[in-house]
Structure formats: C-alpha cells, structure tokens
Amino acid sequence: MEKTTNMREIGQLMSVAIAAVLFGSTMILSAVGPARASEAPILASSDMPAPARYLA
What we know:
Blueprint lengths: L1 H37 L11 H6 L1
C-alpha cells in the first residue's frame, strides 16, 4: 500500500514539474516573441558569417 502511495506522489510531482516547465517556457516565448518579430528581417547571404546564417 505504501509503495502505491509513493508512486502516486511521484507521479503528481512529475506532472506538476512538467506543467511548470511548459508554463515557464510559454511565458518566456511570449515575452521574447514580439520583440524578435518587431526587428527588421535579416536575410541570409553568402557573405555573412556561418553562425549568423543559421540564426537568421
């Protein structure tokens, strides 16, 4: 009986942790998204450094 209770508590804690991570990432993306969208678009060209082409 005690083992079942421990497993249930672990499951609940995992669910809360996953929900917290999803909520936190949503908050971060909602804060960063509008700022990134308002920037002028950067077109990737061959004269740009390689890391900038991947980030564009």
